[in-house]
Amino acid sequence: MKLAHGLNNNEIEVKLRWLLLGELVTWIGSSFVWPLTSVYLNKQLHISLSVIGIVLFCNCASNVLGSLVAGWLYDRCNPYPLIVTGLGVDALILILMAFFHGWPEYWFWLVLTGFASGWNGTLINSIATSLRKYPGRYVFNLIYFAQNVGTVTGTLLVGYLYDFSIEFLFLLAAALFAIGFINAAIHYRPISNFHKQRHAKKTQLGKKPKAEPMPKYNLMLMVGFLISLAVTWLMYMNWESNLSVYMVSLGIPFHLYSLLWTLNGAIIVIVQVILARYPNIFKSLFQQIVFGTLMFAISFATLIVARDFLHFALSMVILTLGESTAFPAVPAYINDLSPNTSKGKYQGVINVARGIGQAFGPLFGGMIIDRAGYIPFFMVAAGGIFLMVILLLPLYAKLRHRIKLYK
Known about the structure:
Elements lengths: L15 H15 L6 H8 L4 H26 L4 H21 L5 H24 L7 H29 L1 H22 L2 H13 L13 H25 L1 H8 L4 H24 L7 H19 L5 H29 L5 H30 L1 H26 L8
Helix pairs in contact: 1-6, 1-7, 3-5, 3-14, 4-5, 4-7, 5-14, 6-11, 6-13, 9-13, 9-14, 9-15, 11-13, 12-13, 12-15, 13-14, 14-15
């Protein structure tokens, strides 16, 4: 059977451009779904906000589970059928959502698509670790760039498409995932050869291959990064939830809050282009992570005095500088810390840390805001993220000469 589409059997590396295409179309598709969930459930299906909160929590929890399972399987099985199946299943779920989007089936589909999203995201990041033609920092910066171009495109279109027809919206999202599925089926096949070579090196005398454990000091540093990532997401999620209410309460129109996210997307694209063109702006990935984390802390500190749109725009610019530098650097550095036999596992753990922050962020912020107000929350957020910088600096200084890097 001619399935390889002219592929050289000795080719063991997926082309970066096809990996980026897959990320672009699937993130556009995903961005058609998550922004409308709360509005659709509340305004169309008349579901209470508290129940919607539970629905979104279940979506995040299933995302975490999908990430864990996919990361574990990547290190043990051929990733090619895993990613092709994941994208195909996601497309199928969206087709079903187009025809059956009442209550409670919408909840059920959202849980399934959350699992598929975690599954596919972890596998894409794991496949990215197999690329040797480019430095890891460059690869993950471009992946983050493609994700955010997809997010900006999707969120700009979803408002118009939602007014036209929600059924059409889900079918269009399904079509985009179908493109991702076809792209993966045709162009991701080299990961099968990579998997065979990876396991051939590990197998000796017919014994079952064993995964190399992460060195102790690598693990200690990775845990520090994951805690920092979870705390940052815990605070960051409040920009997507509670900040809109705060701005409206100050008399700022809601459309200006939406404009902040357009600004966010534009800055991310610009920063990623700069980082791709000048990859050595930061001397190391660690410096890039610390800089980004510090920007997150400063952005929340500036919110303490924000009372008009320009101040919120300034806070968003600082926040986006943090997001566009720290977030893509974490998976790149953890890739360097991870043994070749367990890269999928630890890319999955990154999504778990992020998912925990996403799941509990709005609840955490809401509890503080309800009891103390917005200004105390901004202080807690700025202080909490700054503490992560204080944690990482001495930890890295102590371990930097003891860690082992797997380039």
